[in-house]
Amino acid sequence: MSATRAETGDPTSRALARLEEAVERLAEAAAQPRGPAGAPSVEGVPRAAVAAIADRLDETIARLRAALGEDQ
User: Fold this and answer.
1) Could you report the per-residue pLDDT of 5-26, keeping only the tens digit for each?
2) Predicted TM-score of the model (pTM)
3) Is 5 helix (H, G, I), strand (E, B) or coil?
4) Where are the beta strands (DSSP E) in the chain?
5) pLDDT digits over 32-70, tens only?
6) Which three-class secondary structure state does DSSP give residue 35?
7) In sequence order, what are the residues at sequence separation of 6 or more whose Cβ sits closer than 8 angstroms to the Cβ of residue 13?
């Protein structure tokens, strides 16, 4: 995240910065060593929960693209 983007008063820029931070946290959680299926990650978050969040994020991005009129 760039400091410039985070410091602006533009709501779109602030939302983008929060989204980028959230995706980074998800990527870090997903990169943790894998245990048995359903076992919590190092942070105590079950992998299934991270996968569900990723699915919701994909759906949210698809809705955003549709609202912007972008083809996938």
Assistant:
1) 456 678 888 888 888 888 888 7
2) 0.49
3) helix
4) none
5) 766 665 555 546 677 788 788 889 988 988 888 888 887
6) coil
7) 5, 6
Distances (CA, A) of 62 to 52, 66, 69: 15, 6, 10
Sign of CA dihedral 41, 44, 49, 50: negative
pLDDT for the residue 70: 74
In angstroms, the Cα distances linking 16 to 3, 7, 39, 43, 72 are 12, 12, 31, 25, 19
What's the pLDDT score for residue 1? 45
Cα 36 off chain centre by:
24
What are the domain boundaries of the chain? 3-68
Return all residues near 22 (Cβ < 8 A) that are at least 6 apart: 57
Q: Quick one: how far is CA 24 from the chain centroid?
A: 7
